[in-house]
């Protein structure tokens, strides 16, 4: 443990950021999982709403800096490919 006050504060801030980022990442994983489950069920309406929600959550995470913009784009692209493959 650091003894210097500034380092102690820095560790506390790191822990708070880690917690916040973990929550955002968890919501991204959950949204993607729900979209994938909707695709597996075959319900077109559920797929559309789940995909829209997942895209929104991924964009939000990228805007917050939790995900890199290319990482977010890749996740959305792969999810869209699954949705399009299901539509055929």
Explain what the structure shows.
The chain has 88 residues and is mainly α. 88% of the residues lie in helices and 0% in strands. It is elongated and about 60 Å long.
Essential attributes:
single chain; about 90 residues; mainly alpha; about 0% strand; elongated
Short description:
The protein is mainly α. The chain contains three helices and no strands.
Q: Give me the strand/helix succession.
A: HHH
The span between the termini is 57 Å
Low-confidence segments, given as residue ranges, are none
The proportion of residues forming helix, as a percent range, comes to over 70%
Summarize the main sheet. none
Amount of beta strand: under 5%
- Tally of DSSP β-strands: 0
What is the general shape? elongated
Task: Compute the average pLDDT.
Answer: 96
Helix run count: 3
Q: For the CA atoms, what is the radius of gyration? A: 17 Å
